[in-house]
From TrEMBL:
Catalytic activity line of the entry: D-ribulose 5-phosphate = D-xylulose 5-phosphate
Listed name of the protein: Ribulose-phosphate 3-epimerase
Lineage summary: Bacteria, Bacillati, Bacillota, Clostridia, Koleobacterales
Top EC group: isomerase
Binding residues for a divalent metal cation: H32, D34, H65, D174
Annotated source species: Koleobacter methoxysyntrophicus
């Protein structure tokens, strides 16, 4: 089954409750929350207080994408705030294995993100310890960017690696996914689709999610 994870980065922050109710009614599988520190990426987004508030109003699993340097400083806080999947960037961790281990110990589902130019080999000695890989298909930092050409090949290569080395790992893709390319990324092997602008900037959020799911499932 293909999972859909709306990225609230493109939601209306003055009307977040409404946007969350809309995506819940469209049966999405998790909420993707982008945390940016202005150092790892050239943008600042939202943090722990907002996640705590979201946790109080939804049962959806919270998928926390940490685009922050040295995420080990805040793992406990993000788990206590209600994070379920905790994704750290391989490029942002000096001791990736230790960070993943601490996410697991604290009760989170550890996940590792890779920037578009980062080779899949960084996963070689960590793939057995994680629940998900987040493959960036844009350079992280902003919503609404275009999917980078050639990333389908990387998705396909990652899918093969996962099947060989740890088939329990989920493959999440994030960045520039829309109605036009969702079936290609699913064909290449993606299991979890993050979409921000394609969902929240559309005229009808619920209808867009239904259509994305139909395309993803080839119906
Ligand atoms: O991590 C991200 C940006 O760094 C976002 O999750 C991603 O860009 C989603 O937005 P869109 O679907 O509009 O590209
Ligand atoms: Fe993200």
């Amino acid at each position: 089954m293909i999972m859909i994870a709306p990225s609230i980065l493109s939601a209306d922050f003055t009307n977040l409750l409404k946007d969350i109710r809309d995506v819940e009614q469209a049966n999405v599988n998790m909420l993707h929350i982008d945390v940016m520190d202005g150092h790892f990426v050239p943008n600042i987004s939202i943090g722990i207080p907002v996640i705590k508030s979201i946790k109080k109003i939804t049962e959806l699993p919270l998928d926390i994408h940490l685009m922050i340097i040295k995420p080990e400083r805040y793992i406990e806080d993000f788990i206590n705030a209600g994070g379920n999947y905790i994704t750290v960037h391989a490029e942002a961790c000096l001791h990736l294995h230790r960070v993943v281990e601490s996410i697991r110990k604290m009760g989170g589902k550890p996940s590792v993100a890779l920037n578009p130019a980062t080779p899949l080999s960084v996963l070689d000695y960590i793939i057995n310890e994680i629940d998900m890989v987040l493959l960036m298909t844009v350079n992280p930092g902003f919503g609404g960017q275009s999917f980078i050409n050639g990333m389908e090949k990387k998705i396909w290569e990652l899918k093969n690696k996962i099947q060989k080395e740890n088939p329990r790992v989920r493959l999440q893709v994030d960045g520039g996914i829309n109605m036009e390319n969702i079936s290609d990324v699913v064909k290449a092997g993606a299991d979890i689709i993050v979409a921000g602008s394609a969902i929240f900037e559309s005229r009808n959020v619920k209808e867009t999610i239904y259509k994305l799911r139909k395309k993803a499932e080839g119906i």
